[in-house]
Description:
alpha/beta; single chain; 23 strands; five-stranded antiparallel sheet; globular
Amino acid sequence: MNQIKVVTQIDVKLLEDDYRNQTFEQNLAFFRQHQPQWAKRIKKNINQHYKICLNPDQSLNIIDLQTGQTLFPDSRDKIDEYFEAQYRAMEINIYLHLEHFDDSIEAIEWRALNPLYYGLMEKLYDAGPLPALIDPVTHKLNLIKHPPGFLPLLRIYGCGLGQHIIHALEKYDIATLFVHEPEFELFYCSLFILPWDQILTIFINDPDRHCSISFDQTAESFKTEKALLEDQHPFYFRANARLSGNRQQDYGELIQLENDYDSLRYNIHSAGWYEDQVMGLKNALRNVCRGLKFYRGKQIKPFTRVFLIGSGPSLNESIDYLKQHQQDAILIACGSAISVLIKNGINPDIHILQERTWTRDIMLKYASEEIYSKIIALKLNTVESSLDGLYREVYVFQKAKDPGSCLLDTDTFPVSYAVNPTVTNAGASFSVSLGADEIYLFGIDYGTRPEDEFMHAEGTVVNHADEVDHDSPYLLKGNFSDHVISDEIFSWSHNVAELLVAQNRNIKWFNVGDGAAIKHAKKLRSSELPQQFRPMAFDKNRFADLLAACFSNEYSIEETANRLNNLHLQSSYDYLNAILDCFESTPNSRRGIITNITLISRAANSGVSEESYLPQKLFGGEIQRYLENVYSQVAVTQNDDQAVVFYSKAADILREHAEAVFEDFQLTVARILEQELASQQPSH
């Protein structure tokens, strides 16, 4: 054995390259049988950065060959203390929808608008373990006073010497273990200390448990692994723990990827519940019954340039430029950006409407009726029709994965993707669909610079808080600054925008101003914008005719009504009953319940890729929210018996809820068809 002196003044013995102990041999034999590709990599491994060594008391340690420092303390007792401290610092995250506690005026209004959804969540709360675990003053789950004995998911960052993993497995019943060790040499070192054969056998022999080990650190491989994990536990981001095995700073990038990915998955899973979805369906049905023209998949063929305008703070610097260059592009105002443009004497060609809650009173805060009468509106089918008379023309896009888009034939009237969560997403999606060749993004910032005070440009009419939260954990890389302060929704919106831009690289994208950077979009300061443009291939006066050719109302209102009454109502009844049938099995453990919830989640997603299948679009989001809640509450039950009792009660609650939403759906469809079809009859 080689003996060296390290920087920490610890005398350690560096073991020979061919050193093996019994633990290593047992692990290697296990991997030969269950992971032969790992066994081959282990056999070929040559440690160049990290190596196993012996402390003065003969306990095993790991040395960094580049610095000469050991990664862990110099004795067995100190190592045990170190990992005890790491274990005690384990971060446990349990996320719950706690609408039950919110007594704000806004929450009371939402309860009045969504009695079925709030009723479901409050019944789940009353039936579960939460009343005994929630602090009555802070309304938060006290995990110190009530530590969970069960973890649906434990994420380990770094194998280290492995004691932290042993501690966690001894303390918790863990359904899924996800280990990230980007340094394969450190994993190799753990083979001498950690009995991987015993640990992994626990998971292999139990169909309700899963284990995954990752050696890669790239963003793409990480997302692939997370997708596989999500297939096993679709709600893993609702209840999980994180434990670091060695220096946490080594895993900062991975942890940030984890947080970003979890935030995105949370937003996707949490989007939509029955009353939220049925509101969009009602609006879409009225748009159809009133014969509005829907997008039919055609593009404007002549060369088209678009100035897509949001109401982010960077818009302030571009106002004068937009005034001077109104004829060089089609000006598209996204939502509240119209108030900034009109205030500054800029008349947009198009106004994008995406939110379902627009009213005439709100619209007239932005501009006068005379101004609207000169503007074309492009809206999602989920936006109501009472505003349509304000505009010169109104054209409709079908929203993907929405119940309202099941009313028309999607081959003739295709759906639009990437339209949520903000109106600028819808504007970008519509611009792509219509065949824009160049898209300049003005005021589409997804946040604001740290030195700014407000999240919107001057003159924006907003109905929510506008001040910057300087403590926000959501930070995005700036277009020109180090970063911009974002929030949960804008961060999600930014993810969607980057995906849309990446998928449409044939379009020239220009990101103007100092908002968030957007991958594959050329960044431009307002002072760098061109003073002369290549002319568009048509006079702007012809644009209205070119746009109109992309839309049509050649559909049958009567066929739509018949399809609703004969096909969609019956398929909705069958869908809800199929979900309820999944609760007939009675698991007897928390791990078994988690497995059942996963299977029910997959059943609830049946038809998710079929745009014409209404039940999943209408009821699926609420069922997923229900399953998330059950998943999280099972995670904090004190034992299997308590979890089984709660699961049985939760199943009964869903049965009652399914009856209520189906009855409401029947009445809603009948009422709208009666009103709208009656209004189509000629008066005598």
